[in-house]
Amino acid sequence: MGTGLGSSILLSSPRPHLSRPFLPLLRLRSPPPPPPPPLISLSLSLSPRLDKFIPKCCVTNVEVELDSVTVTCQNDELNSIPSLQSSCPIPLVAITGDDLDLDIDLPTPPFGLLPAGQNSVFEELPVLSAGEQQSLAATPAHPKGLYAMYACYLFGNLVEQLWNFAWPAALSILHPSLLPVAVVGFFTKFSVFVGAPIVGKLMDHFPRIPTYNGLNVIQVATQLISAGMIIHGFNTIRPNSPPAVLLQPWFIVLVMASAIERIAGLALGVTMERDWVVLLAGSNRPVALAQANAILNRLDLLCETLGASVFGILLSKFSTVTCLKVACGLMVGSLPVLIILGQIMNRLSCYVLDCHRTTYEKASFGDLLLNSVKLVQDSLDAITHGWNEYKHQTVLPASMASVLLFFNVALAPGAIMTALLMHYGISPSIIGAFSGLCSTMGLVATFTSAGLVKRLGILKAAAAGLIFQASLLAVALAVYWSGPISKQAPLIIFLSSIVLSRLGHMSYDVVGTQILQTGIPASKANLIGATEVSIASLAELVMLGGAIILNDVSHFGVLAILSAAAVACAALMFCRWLANPTDEQRELFTFDPHFTPM
To answer: What is the phi-psi region of residue 211: left when phi exceeds 0, alpha when psi lies from -120 to 50, beta otherwise?
Structure first.
């Protein structure tokens, strides 16, 4: 007895006669010993009404029991078709005609079509070779649209990174205290911590291109307002006490505009890095998607390097107000370019970014818009659920180490370090070069981390990155407490230690991401990842709150101690986890040939 698949007959292809025999897509599976070969003979004739069509056989997923079956359709035998000898649910279709005769004999190749050595009349379905599959996986779904997205990301991110360096530098020149910079930084991080989940939920219900255009308009408008407020602060009488600065109307507007600008920038980054790149590279093309993610990461670091360096050079040659006006000109000029690039990107990608949301999502958006209480409740439920999943993940120590690194706001490039160096009278060009070198170290880490993993294994490579960073930050801390860093030799050692420590920081960032991707189930990756980002923002909030309390520059040493201690705790926690692996950890990282407890 053999088991096969049934077929149905379809009429198509407007041609008068068969130009070549057609073999039905039918596969027979027969256990040994083979039964006597069944014979299926099918004779069909087309009526004059159907003489322009060719009958075709198409296999469907229907199981058939065959012993010895003969099916015959003749012009004069339509009423005497023999029945099948077993339970068979296939309907019989008879077509009459006078000029078509097709016979198929299963065991013997008909018409001599089969090549030598092939023992079946049914050809296997063609499949891609391993090389062709790898080539397809590395080919983006919309390569031209992806290149347009790179240009759009580069141009928009360059202006954003320039402004991220410009505002703390300008505020530090405006007032020597750390307090104004710390307050603005605190509320921008707080806006991200509170508003990011809600904005992310709402963005899922807006069309992509109009949302992108609107976010660009909001970001540029808030950047212009922030720059205008700082310029207004330079043109008015400056209060001597730091708390008096916080009560100025222009400073309050600056804080509000900066918070909105940061949310808009975050939303644009998520749109590009989490949504658009997947659509343009292809979610089912992993190599192309990984390459696109790496390019976006390097472009971000490149923009951070260029933005800080360019504005630092401008500050060293021109007045602060002039530099802010130049930044405003770049912001205004960038807006039409970004909108045009967005349209070009959508057109080159065959309008894939115009994909509409589902009806359910549209209805949900209307409900959320009308019921703000439900929106807040859903966000709180999502945060609670995310925290529960986060604290029960298998690789929790690795994730907590990443969070602890965000406590380092003093011994890292950023607003606090910029304010400190400006207070000591360091040239803005040197400060810009320092920030650029820190970003360059991150760029180098994206290339060296693969070799580090190959030599040490993924877990030990992550531990090496943390230990390297903690050691160099200890050197920087010792130099700071040994004497004033305004002198040339201590300043060079202090800044060089921080620059080199970024190599370890970014190495762990790259390798740690792979650890988290390995240990977190795919079904919970987004939830746990978003929760980790929120907790990291909370860590920065705590440190910036400490900077607000310890706002005098003389208290920077305390912030430096807290920052270095957080990195040391991260390295100690990870190494302890690595030295005492659980059975679950061993099972997860069995692919790591270098994995042995420390």
So the answer is: alpha
